[in-house]
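Project standup — Tuesday

K.O.: blocked on the structure for the chain from last sprint. Re-posting the sequence here as requested.
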Amino acid sequence: MARQITTTTHQDQFGAEPINVIEVQWVEDGNRVTYADRDIPSENVFGKIVLLDKLDFIINVNEGSDSQEINIGLSDVDGDLKDIIDNHDIHKRDVWVYQWFEGDDFADKFLIFQGQINSPIA
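H.V.: unblocked you, prediction finished:
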């Protein structure tokens, strides 16, 4: 009699969707600023991500490729981003895109993309 081996993913086990998290180093040698696609109060992270375009393509890309892009849109209702852009050159600043599952330790978020801010910036 054959045994069937089954595996479960975090989503299958807990029914959770990943939360997208980005970190941006707006200022050279400065601290990273963290944003998510929903508020994470326990980490003092605000849900400012309003667009993550091409994310599915990035996740499914062959691991050997290192020339990908992703479009990110952030809400600036509080004016923080305008202040950063008005006072700093943000072109070529480092950006990290992660996914994280609520209920896991925030330090366990996993990197899915790393790149730099590039034009056009709107």
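K.O.: great, moving the ticket to review. The two ends are 62 Å apart (CA to CA). Residues 22 and 97 are 4 Å apart (CA to CA).
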